[in-house]
Amino acid sequence: VGVVLMIVVSLMDPRSVRRLSLAVFVASLVGLIAVHLVGADINGARRWLSIGGHSLQPSEFAKPAFVVISAWLLAEARDRPDMPAQLLAILAFVSFTGLLVTEPDVGQTMLVTMVWGALFFASGQPLLRAAIIAMAGAVTLIVAYAFVPYVHGRVDAFLNPQPGAWTQAQKAVQSFTAGGLFGRGPGEGTIKRVLPDAHTDYIFAVVAEEYGVVTCLLLVALFAFVVLRALLRVAEEPDASVRLAVIGLALLFGLQALINMGVNVGLLPAKGMTLPFISAGGSSLLGVALTAGMMLALTRRRPDALRLKKPRLIPTIGDR
Question: Among 147, 172, 310, 316, whose CB has the most other CB atoms within 10 angstroms?
């Protein structure tokens, strides 16, 4: 399903991508509101809707749509000062992150904030406004640490691990030691049996134990290639909204992978974030497929009108 979604979206033109993003974003916001009303409470958080026996996480679909809409609004704010596009971009950001924080989902909130802040800066907005956004993000983190118990607990466990306690993060780091350079072999890992989220949040550690650090480095290089390729492709893009959208989607893809891998190697506290295209999961996989499809659609080469113009069957004197 993810492959079909990615291919279908990749065939769209930029205007169709924006229209799809608007529809997906509005539907996802409705879903995020519904999560607070009828969503299941799992581990102290309400992030999922139960539909037909399957769980659906609206925030995964909202992320790429939000990036494309924000990119268009910020581009319009620069090109058309008479339009309240910047205010609309800020309202979209506040609405989306506000719903994420109240779930609570601090990891996704941080990811969305970093990407939106990068878009705000890349769109050519005044540095003072960008600095205010950065300060607001820092204040949000401090408030989350002070008033959200599970955030406080995870940060404290990361900064001050209890002696003798074998936490998930320590188990994940041990996987890299156990796997060595080339791993124990497919299916031969043992630490995954004691990792509660081995198939999602800590899949990178499972790869390390079974396939080795060399394979992990190849994965890192592959993620970096996708991000750099997308950024290089739009370096000369004349359409500001397309350029910003690709920058945002590439950062969304790359930062999510970076955060997941950072958690697995013990550089970051646990975030509950999947590794794109590697972790198991329905909503996450479809959300990443949507992100990749949009990147392909916006970076796809299109022939211009002159190349599409057919030559005359019988040349005239003026054509010679």
Answer: 172
8 Å CB contact between 68 and 24? no
Q: What angle do CA 247, 249, 253 make, to 5 degrees?
A: 115
Amino acid letter, 203: I
C-alpha span between 108 and 64 (Å, rounded): 12
Q: 48 - beta bridge partners?
A: 40
Distance of CA 131 to the CA centre of its chain: 23
DSSP string, 112-168: HHHHHHHHHHHTT--HHHHHHHHHHHHHHHHHHHHH-HHHHHHHHHHHSPPTT---H
Cβ-count burial 121-152 (b if 16+ within 10 Å, e if not): bbbebeeeebeebeeebeebeeebeeebeebe
DSSP single-letter state for residue 18: H
* Placement of tokens 């080339």 in the chain: 182
- pLDDT, one tens digit per residue, over 184-202 is 999 888 888 888 788 888 9
To the nearest 10 degrees (0 to 180), the angle between helices 282-299 and 2-10 is 20
The answer to whether residue 305 scores a pLDDT higher than 60 is: no
Closest to 18 (Cα-Cα) out of 100, 75, 59:
75
Torsions phi, psi of 147, nearest 5?
-120, -10
Give the 3-state secondary structure of residue 232: helix
Cβ neighbors of 145 (< 8 A, separation 6 or more) are 151, 152, 155
pTM for this structure? 0.87
Question: Cis bond leading into 104, ω under 30°?
Answer: yes
